[in-house]
Please model this.
Amino acid sequence: MAEALYQIIGRHRAEPLPERKPSWLKVRAPGGANYLRLKGLMRELNLHTVCEEAHCPNVGECWEHGTATFMILGDVCTRNCAYCAVSHGRPPTYDIEEPNRVAAAIAQMNLRHAVITSVDRDDLPDFGAFIFAETIRQIHALVPGCSVEVLVPDFQGNEESIRAVLAAEPEIYNHNTETVPRLYKRARPGGRYERVLNIFRLSKQVAPHIPTKTGIILGLGEAIEEVIEVMKDLRAVDVDILTLGQYLRPSNDHLPLDRYYTPDEFRHLREVGMSMGFRHVESGPLVRSSYHAWEQVQAAGVAT
Ligand code: SF4
Model:
């Protein structure tokens, strides 16, 4: 299966980038009634979403469907990944009331599956783990039946922080791999590839009943063989759900885009991933960790 994939993707590798975005990346502009309602709710409750902060292309679609990914612990990140649009610098202190407000927003939105992520908080002694755990507890208490997926930072690999979040019993423990090890230094200077694998190892050891999930963005200059190797590494540490999506350069100050993958290539990658034993692979040009997250967990048999 991987051999056939190398042939398909190899055909495109030397082609120059088209001047315009390919048609499969066109999305509808945000602005519908539900979108405006959610925007109002976020401002009213003083909450941040990664949908807005990371300039996600799917915001029109997701918000129109009443789903959003909350970004806790502020909107300033202590790291400076070269592909990411979230602002970086020295964040102010965290807000102890934020978990309450996130839970209140989820109750108002009537969500059955909530995705919670955050900026990196390397400035905090626990890297923000307590606020994550508290957010999970508040959502479970206020919105019974709503599953909680946390997309956590690496907490610098700190075991106590990882254990604290798992102890709050999220329904999914998600941490993004983002790219292949060769590109870590350039794309994700604060991260370590081995650390990502260790996080999943620990998670399965501490809480084997909590499904794990990760994501890779494509188009940063990786070779397809490297992507396959990463997928094998992730299966070796028993990651359950994988997302694969296209990198879109947020601005000229960010890492240049190396290439666009076609929908066909994403389909093939999905097949390769499923044949490796992932419970679910969401693979497509516009896929982000939280894109159709509810459908992903259902497909993986995590929720009903
Ligand atoms: S894909 Fe995720 S980050 Fe993007 S708009 Fe949808 S919920 Fe928000």
